[in-house]
Design goal:
412 residues, alpha+beta, 2 domains, ten-stranded mixed β-sheet, 17% strand, elongated
Length: 412
Amino acid sequence: MTVKNYIKTAFTGLKRNKSRSALTILGIVIGITAIILVMSLGKGAQDLILNQVRGLGSKTLIILPGRQPKGPTDAAQMFGDSLKERDIALLENKANVPDLARIIPIIFGSDSANYQGETYRLTIIGATEEVSKIFDTYPSEGSFFSEDDIKRNADVAVIGAKVKEQLFGNSEVIGEKIKIKNRNLKVVGVLPKKGQVSFFNFDEMAIIPYTTAQKYIFGKKYFDRLIVEAVSEEAISRVVNDINLTLRNSHNITDPEKDDFHIETQAGLMSQISTITDVLTLFLLAVAAISLLVGGVGIMNIMLVSVTERTREIGLRKALGATKTNILIQFLLEAVFLTGAGGVVGIILGASFSFLASLVLGRVIGMSWSFTFPTSAAIVGLIVSGTIGLLFGLYPARQASLKSPIEALRYE
């Protein structure tokens, strides 16, 4: 028989039992759909997180309190009180860190803000006026507070666009006062709609002088983190080394294993995030792959049933001259066509569901969730589905080819 005849015979066999063929490939369709969905959403989540990290800029690094966490039990280390005012003074000294361009202390938390009976829970960031340069966001109304406001522990605030909308509506806001923790803070500026930048939603926050946040709002004398900008990307490694030496001397640390702080660079943070998301994606893929295995077993069972039901057909074909090889190839091709069709349908459904999910997630979280079609996963999915057809279709096909034509013709 020619290849064309093999294909035609296989298709004819499948057409006679359309319902059974459709049910046979259901497991493969579900498995491939799940793989495409997981790969697409995993890549979208990774891109979203990495874009947030990149929002700080490639010359920026973050100093956090506590040792570098190496597992879930170390998470509490990140909320220490090891970063103090004296550390900023030492790091700003050019003799200690010559390649440091600027350093910004950060204190953050959340609380409710009140204005004439309206209440809104917002994020409060205590920082310097240079935070606007780091995050590249400047007031669309009014101005940022000044260095003098920081020295005076001034009761001033720059609020986000959503905070203004919730508390003031369309009213004038500059010069008005909002109450936070029994402090009346004068609004000196309003930020334009910015959304999420490096894990901070600027639309839902109030930025105040860090001295005011320390003394009146949070009542603490340490910082939650220090944001440092180097003079250039090439200077990042030198800045990291200088910061380590300076802070170890300041904290009387001789053994690096006992550091009460750790530094995160943008490159290091992106590498960690990529590793975490890749591991999670692989785990979910392993789970999704189980349905492919189940689908393969289902195909083998259905094909065995098909062989039994078509015993007389096999006997007749053998009586007319079909060889064992002809029968084997026919049933093997039927299994491959079934799984291949399941793979194609699964890819189409997976891509469609992924696109819809990216639109829904983007609206729910209020951020840009990009849709990515995982080409490599689609190719692998087709190869895997075809391979499953070969592996799980081989036994039923062999059983069909071994049937005796005389016994098959007598079969009722």
